[in-house]
Amino acid sequence: MKERFIVTTEDGSNTIYIPELNENYNSIHGSIQESSLIYLEYGLHYCNKEEINILEIGFGTGLNVFNTLLNTDKKIMYHSIELYPLTPEEYSKLNIPNFFDDNKSNLFIDIHECEWDKINLITDNFSLYKIHEDLLKVNLAYKYDVVYFDAFAPDIQPSLWTTEVFSKIYKSMNIGGILTTYCVKGDVKRALKECGFKIEKLKGPKGKREILRAVKESE
User: Fold this and answer.
1) Measured between alpha carbons, how far is 43 from 50 in angstroms, rounded to an integer?
2) Packed helices 163-171 and 186-195: angle between N→C axes, nearest 10 degrees
C-alpha cells in the first residue's frame, strides 16, 4: 500500500494525494467541479433513460458516487471498481459531505461502509455494487448506459488506457452508452476510436481545457 495524504483542492473540497506517484485522486483545481462537469453533466445528465446502469472505473474518495446519488431522481444501478479502497480513518476525515445537503451527509459514510462485492440498496432508487478487484481481471457481465472512466492518468496506469480495456468496456455497454473521461491524450482517443466509439472533445473544468465523451452507436 502506497502512502496517501488528504489534501485540499481549490474549491475547498478534499482529495487524496499519493507522493510516490505524484498523483491526486481528483483535480487539485477543484474535485467537486471536476466530478459535476465531466461525469454528471457530460455523462449522467446526457443519458435520457429513466433507469440508468453506471460503471465507474476508480471508486477513489467516493465523490462521484455521492455526487450522483444526490443529483438525480432516476433509478440508478451503480457499479464501481476499486483495487485499493480508502481506510475508515481516511474517508472519515474527508470534508466532501460539507459541500452537499446537510440532511444527506450521512449517505457519504454509508457508501463507504456498505459491503464490497455485494449489491447494497443505499436509497429506494440507488443501488451500489462496489467491486474490490483489478479492472484487468473483472468480468463485466452487466450492460451499462454510462461509464465514468476516472482511473489514474495513462503515465501512471498505462495498462488501463489500452484498446483491450476500452474494447472490454465497449462490449459491456448498451447501444447509446456514454463514456466520459478527463483524459484527451492522442493514444486514448485512438484507442477509443479503434473500439468503435464516436468521440468528441468538450470544454473541461478549471485547469483542464478539454475532456472526452465517447458514445457507443452500434454493436
Assistant:
1) 14
2) 40
Sign (positive or negative) of CA dihedral 4, 30, 188, 41: positive
Mean of pLDDT values over 151-168:
96
Residue with cell 466532501: 96
Strands 51-57 and 14-18: unpaired
Sign of the torsion angle spanned by Cα atoms 171, 174, 177, 180: negative
Domains of the chain (ranges; CATH) run 31-215 (3.40.50.150)
The pLDDT of residue 101 is 81
Residue 195: which H helix or E strand, with range? Answer: helix 186-195
- 44 has pLDDT over 90: yes
Of all residues in the chain, the percent with pLDDT exceeding 70 is 100
- Host H or E run for residue 215: strand 210-215
Count of residues for the chain?
219
d(CA 145, CA 48): 10
Taking the alpha carbons of 28, 81, 66, 97 in that order, is the dihedral positive or negative?
Answer: negative
Q: Are the CB atoms for 166 and 149 separated by under 8 Å?
A: no
